[in-house]
Amino acid sequence: MTVSLPAGASDWLRTGERGISSEAIFSHLTGIPVCGHWGLRPPADPDDLRRCRLLLEAVPAFAAELHRMAEVSEEWAALVERWDKICATMDREVPEWRERRGSAPETYAIMRAAVNGERR
């Protein structure tokens, strides 16, 4: 059986920076299980978020379908709802996030508040 993946997806599988939550996005949006026994866990901190964002940059079709992650869990739904705000905060707080430079405590606080059902 041949599976057709969107542009960038095969390259990301081979060489992309992967983590549990970025693999959850890949798995849910393609139907191809790559996340093993960890399941479809959402990003738990800015470093997890960073890997998710790198995936979405590498595979633009996934960025357009990110809203589907809300189907996975309440935690994912809460993060997807605030995704733009979380990313904008990370961009402001850590402009060099792609290179793993800096700290993002405000981004982390917004992520935690979302997952805990708090408004921020």
Can you walk through the features of this model?
This protein has 120 residues and is an all-alpha fold. The protein has one domain. The chain has seven helices and no strands. The chain has helices at residues 9-15, 20-30, 46-58, 60-64, 74-81, 83-93, 105-115. It is globular, with a radius of gyration of 14 Å. The termini are far apart.
Count of distinct strands: 0
- Helix and strand content put the structural class at mainly alpha
Cα Rg: 14 Å
What share of the residues lie within helices? 55-70%
Measured distance between first and last alpha carbons: 46 Å
Outline = globular
What is the helix/strand order?
HHHHHHH
How confident is the prediction overall: mean pLDDT? 93
Low-confidence runs: none
Describe the sheet with the most strands: none
Total domains: 1
Q: What fraction strand?
A: under 5%
So how many helices?
7
Task: Provide a short characterization of the protein structure.
This protein is mainly α and 120 residues long. It has one domain (9-115).
Task: Please render the helix and strand layout as text.
Elements lengths: L8 H7 L4 H11 L15 H13 L1 H5 L9 H8 L1 H11 L11 H11 L5
Helix pairs in contact: 2-3, 6-7
Label this structure with key terms.
single chain; 120 residues; 7 helices; globular
